[in-house]
Design brief:
Helices cover about 55% and strands about 10% of the residues. It is of the alpha/beta class. Helix 10 (about 205-225) packs antiparallel against helix 11.
Length: about 300
């Protein structure tokens, strides 16, 4: 069974559900991308189906194996692909019809709704109807990055389990186990630039993500001690790559947001709260222009100018 690192509170809650024999009919697993929401959802489903006499899930019985490899006939995973509002009402309507059919092997049917924040409002309202009066033989596991993106009526019908971001030291320790063959310097770099183990693995294994993160490092360094010309030179490779420019802006926005949160909490931040707010405003404006198919060359120039203006 795949190891689930840290997040002891979620593990203890699952153990309490299992030992008490009383699972909520709906659980929302909330956490940043790469925090293991899908992994933990499968872990919950396996605990429901496990036939071991000892701690559950055992990870080795036939029921656990089917769940953890995505092959159990009574466990269905839907969603997780596409962008905002790509999770449509027809999918929920089908689930509502099928949820009343008795399971074939497991004690109950389990529906894992991945990236539930991508459900349309209509889909959420359709889901609410079955959450209000759920069939005894069905359980719903939702995953989302942020609970606030779901309707309050949905949140009132689910129990929320939060999968927390990890420290760089925790991520580095996990990477040492998961990817021992990689250079330690690369593992430490990935750990410092991600909130989750999954995010760090993506940086190490996805060349495009790695390039974006390293360019963001360079942008931050030039904002602290470089000229606008040097910043423009660093951004030059993106002048004909609007998608890559958008990915950089998203990465910079995440970093500025973390810096602002640190500044608000009285922690150490490289820039003032005012500088960070102005930079975030500039990035929001640029991301809107990128989505409107703005000219990549002009937007690259504008990015350098706006960030330098914001940071001063």
């Amino acid at each position: 069974m795949e190891k689930f690192y840290y997040n002891q509170t979620a593990e203890k809650t699952l153990a309490a559900f299992t030992n008490g024999g009383r699972f909520p009919h709906a659980i929302l697993l909330e956490g940043p991308a790469g925090s293991g929401r899908r992994t933990f959802a499968r872990r919950i489903a396996a605990a429901l189906c496990c036939r071991s006499e000892g701690p559950r899930p055992c990870g080795v019985c036939s029921q656990c194996h089917k769940v953890l490899t995505g092959q159990h006939p009574d466990i269905e995973e839907v969603g997780g692909d596409g962008g905002r509002r790509s999770f449509h009402i027809d999918t929920i309507r089908r689930i509502r019809r099928e949820a009343y059919i008795r399971p074939g092997e497991a004690p109950c049917k389990v529906y894992i709704l991945l990236s539930a924040e991508n459900m349309t409002v209509q889909a959420q309202n359709a889901l609410l109807k079955i959450l209000e009066e759920p069939p005894a033989q069905a359980m719903f596991l939702l995953t989302a990055e942020n609970r606030t993106m779901l309707l309050p009526t949905i949140l009132s019908r689910v129990q929320v389990l939060r999968l927390e971001s990890l420290t760089p030291a925790q991520i580095a320790a996990a990477l040492a186990e998961l990817r021992p063959g990689l250079p330690e310097g690369d593992r430490l770099w990935a750990a410092q630039h991600s909130e989750t183990i999954g995010g760090a693995l993506s940086l190490l294994e996805d060349p495009d993500q790695g390039k974006t993160a390293r360019l963001a490092d360079q942008v931050f360094a030039l904002l602290e001690g470089g000229s606008e010309y040097e910043l423009l030179a660093a951004l030059h490779p993106l002048e004909k790559k609007r998608d890559a420019l958008g990915e950089l802006c998203e990465e910079l926005r995440r970093r500025f947001s973390r810096e602002l949160a640190a500044a608000a909490a009285g922690g150490e931040a490289r820039f003032s709260a005012r500088q960070l707010t102005l930079a975030l405003d500039a990035l929001d404006d640029l991301l809107t222009r990128i989505r409107q198919n703005g000219n990549a060359l002009l937007l690259t120039t504008l990015l350098a100018a706006r960030l330098k203006e914001a940071i001063g």
